[in-house]
Specification:
By secondary structure, this protein is an all-alpha fold. About 60% of the residues lie in helices and about 0% in strands. It is built from five helices and no strands. α2 (about 30-55) runs parallel beside α5 (about 80-110). The longest helix is centred in the C-terminal third of the chain and has 28 residues, at about 80-110. It is globular, with a radius of gyration of 15 Å.
Length: about 110
C-alpha cells in the first residue's frame, strides 16, 4: 500500500517526534526569518543532545520544542530581521558541526 502523502510525517524514523509549533510551521512573511532561526536552533539542540549522550534515540534527536520557544521569547525577542540574518550563519555553522558528529551515531542506531 502506498503512503498517504497528505499525511507525510516530519520525522519518519521517529513517528512520535514532537510536531513543529504552529508559529514555526506557518510563519507570517515577517516571521519567516524567525521561523528559520527556530528550526535551526531545534536541529542544533537535537544533534547536540545526540553528541553529548553518545547515543541516538528519538527523544534525544527530536526533543520538545519548549527550549527553542523559550529562547525565541527571551534571547531573540524583539530583534530585527537584519539581526536574525546576522546570527543565522553562526548558528547554522554550529548546527552543521553537531550534525556531522551526530550523523554516524544516529546511522548506527538506524535513525538517519
Amino acid at each position: 500500500m502506498l503512503p498517504d502523502l497528505d499525511e507525510e510525517q516530519e520525522n519518519p524514523d521517529c513517528p512520535n517526534a514532537p510536531a513543529r509549533p504552529e508559529w514555526v510551521t506557518n510563519p507570517s512573511n515577517e516571521g519567516l526569518t524567525r521561523s528559520e532561526l527556530a528550526t535551526e536552533l531545534y536541529q542544533q539542540q537535537g544533534y547536540r543532545n545526540v553528541v553529548e549522550a553518545g547515543e541516538c534515540t528519538c527523544e534525544l534527536r527530536f526533543p520538545s520544542w519548549d527550549r527553542v520557544t523559550e529562547a525565541m521569547e527571551t534571547e531573540f525577542a524583539g530583534i530585527s530581521r537584519f539581526e536574525f540574518l546576522e546570527v543565522i550563519p553562526d548558528i547554522r555553522k554550529a548546527t552543521k558541526t553537531y550534525r556531522n558528529e551526530g550523523r554516524p551515531i544516529c546511522r548506527d542506531a538506524g535513525l538517519w
